[in-house]
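Slide 14.
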Amino acid sequence: MGGSSSSEQVEETETPSFFTQEELSKLKSDFETGGVEKVKPLIDKKVTDLDKTELNIAVTGETGTGKSTFINAMRGLRSNDPGAAEVGTTETTKEPTGYSHPTLPNVRYWDLPGMGTTLFPAATYLTKMKFKRFDFFIIISTVRFKENDVKLAKEIKRLGKQFYFVRSKIDADLYSMRKDKVVIDEEEELEQMRSDTVRRLVESGFPDPTVFLISSLEPDHFDFTRLNEGLEGDLNNVKKRIFVLALPNLSVEIVQRKNEILKKHVWMFAALSGGLGTVPVPGFSFACDIGIVIGAIVHFRKCLGLDDASLQRLANRAGKPVEDLKATVKAPLLGEITPDVIVRLGWGVAVVTISALEFALDFVPVIGSIFGAGSSFLMTYKILSAALKDLTENAERVVKVAFKTD
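Slide 15: predicted structure.
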């Protein structure tokens, strides 16, 4: 569906950051007139704003279409994991029920009660659901989309929000076909399902609908990846990044996409470090804000699924002992991150030899020109870049072991 605006695309191309060009210019101007102390408040505010950014995804459809299972799959959970949405029960929801992501709590999936009942007639449904709070809607059905699904989609479109048609339980459909026909051509059957669903939606007034065929029990099959790519593509810069970081690690490709996003977070932490007083750290040949460095590394570890809770959830989904996954992670990444750990892992080894020329080639010229090549900014930037590379390689190994991929 719709993509980013032209202004957002310019910002993404010219400044791989969360600052606009105007804000970056102001940072430079403020630094020239007032030094680090004058630019620190804007950097602090930006980091705080990012922490508070919310992503709210509405999931709607009739009872029995698999809304709860879908919500669990998007959060990397099975139905019996702590915090999972309850599945297999009669619809009794009278209000939208929000389920936070286990690692990024500002990402929430909302299970909405069905539309078209006496409690929620179509005419007032979106108002009662507090329509404006949701970033987009996922309309889930099985076999075919019903009249209420179509009415809801038209109303969402009229009000200017994005929506997606998702046909769930495709694994069950194929299983039934195999029992009936013994041998089937899976690709042919999937294409028939898709074309039949699209045809019905065209007849209902949607000229060019996109339909995603998924199994929430097999998120590494069918259209689950296409759906996630579609959702990501229709979000603005900041929310797009949050959405990707919230995806469960089902493939090396997802880990690599997270890495690309976290690379753009590195300079934010480095800029925050550069705006604070530097502190000499025992075992380091330079000074930096060690609290920011450690906090950033812990954040990267969670986003890449290397904390204990994330590894356990992945082990549950893959049906593997969690010890098998942990065995692939380089020690001491799974324990407490301390200055000694950073030194032992060699993340700061070459920092002191970095020249101003090398720094000039980095992708943060405006911020870099503010803090300078010899500052805490550059020290932190290089340490976090090395740490992120190491964590990403470990996360890739974990995924390969979990799903037996090369």
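Speaker note: The CA atoms of residues 17 and 46 lie 11 Å apart.
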